[in-house]
Amino acid sequence: MPKNIPKLILSIGLCLGAGIMGSFFTVSAIPTWYQTLNKPIFSPPNWVFGPVWTILYILMGISLYLVWTKKKVPTVFWIQLILNAVWSVIFFGMRNPALALVDIIALWIAIVLTIKALYKINKLAGNLLIPYLLWVSFATVLNLAIIILN
């Protein structure tokens, strides 16, 4: 059982908040602009993204909590969270997949660095971000494919 439930809730809430911020730009673009884009055959149905990202943000929040209870959270964690939120603004809000690709590559690097930093503090905290890294790897390929096809 977690020792500090309010800190756990805050940790998960901060990470979900990044997703919620991004969703303001995503929700309106999905049925309009995004629907008109040519997407690769491996592109998942739109309904998959919400549940997957929700799970990933919760895992991020638990990871944040595990580190935050032991010591100061490494700056790279906050950098990756900001890059994550900004991707939706760039891709969906600005409708700029090319610039979003630059952001998601920086995000991928930041996630790798975050996993390394957190792993030194709490192995489970680092491991909880591996599904996030895998999903962002897939999202990077999807982003690139959308650029190529459009």
Outline the structure in words.
With 150 residues, this protein is an all-alpha fold. It has a single domain, classed as Up-down Bundle (Ferritin), CATH 1.20.1260. Helix content is 83%, strand content 0%. It is built from 6 helices and no strands. It has helices spanning 5-36, 46-68, 75-93, 97-121, 123-127, 130-149. The longest helix is centred in the N-terminal third of the chain and has 32 residues, at 5-36. The mean pLDDT is 96.
CATH homologous superfamily (4th level) name: TspO/MBR protein
Estimate the strand proportion: under 5%
Q: State the low-pLDDT regions, or none.
A: none
Q: Average pLDDT value?
A: 96
Q: N-to-C SSE series?
A: HHHHHH
Summarize the biggest pleated sheet: none
- Oligomer kind: single chain
Give the overall form: elongated
CATH architecture: Up-down Bundle
- DSSP helical segment count: 6
Write a concise synopsis of the structure shown.
The protein has 150 residues and is mainly alpha-helical. The chain is 83% helix and 0% strand.
Write the layout of secondary structure elements.
Blueprint: H1 5-36, H2 46-68, H3 75-93, H4 97-121, H5 123-127, H6 130-149
